[in-house]
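Lab manual, section 2.4: Encoding a predicted structure.

Procedure: take the sequence of the chain (53 residues), apply the prediction step described in section 2.3, and record the output as structure tokens. A sample record is shown.
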Amino acid sequence: MVCPVCGKSAVGKIGGHHYYCRECCHVIQKQGDQIKVYEISEDGKLTFLRTAG
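Recorded output:
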């Protein structure tokens, strides 16, 4: 899988439909054709950024 944010292939599965990019540190949720991008805040919560794809 290629990261929709940075375009790198340093993406690994972290569970269910969730992936993590080691290059730009974003969480990607993939459900069917829809891809949602989240940022991890300092307290560990996910903050929705945008829908990609």
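Check your result against the sample. Strands lie at 11-15, 18-21, 26-31, 34-40, 46-52.
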